[in-house]
């Protein structure tokens, strides 16, 4: 599974980092990126929680 953040869609709300700090990091502009793009099944629940909490719907798993 690959974790993807739409850089143009991210509005810097930071909820992804709040709910899954091991999966996301914010740059100096507050835009989120996955810390590691490839995630395992043990990280899927945290990723899905971040997806559910992103008000911009900028996160997805592919
Ligand atoms: Fe951006 Fe959504 Fe996270 S808007 S900072 S990807 S909660």
Automatic annotation (TrEMBL):
SUPFAM superfamilies linked to this entry: 4Fe-4S ferredoxins
Name of the protein: Ferredoxin
Domain 4Fe-4S ferredoxin-type per the UniProt entry, residue ranges: 1-29
Molecular function GO terms recorded: 3 iron, 4 sulfur cluster binding; electron transfer activity; iron ion binding
Gene3D superfamilies hit by this protein: 3.30.70.20
Cofactor(s) needed by this chain: [3Fe-4S] cluster
Function (record text): Ferredoxins are iron-sulfur proteins that transfer electrons in a wide variety of metabolic reactions.
Keywords, ordered alphabetically: 3Fe-4S, Electron transport, Iron, Iron-sulfur, Metal-binding, Transport
Top-rank lineage group of the source organism: Bacteria
UniProt key word Cell membrane: no
UniProt keyword rRNA-binding, yes or no: no
InterPro entries for the chain: 3Fe4S_ferredoxin, 4Fe4S_Fe-S-bd, Fe-S_cluster_ET
Species assigned in the record: Gordonia jinghuaiqii
């Amino acid at each position: 599974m690959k974790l993807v953040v739409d850089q143009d869609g991210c509005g810097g709300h930071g909820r992804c980092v709040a709910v899954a700090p091991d999966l996301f990091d914010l740059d100096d502009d507050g835009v989120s990126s996955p810390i590691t793009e490839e995630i395992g099944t043990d990280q899927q629940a945290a990723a899905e929680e971040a997806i559910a909490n992103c008000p911009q719907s900028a996160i997805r798993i592919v």
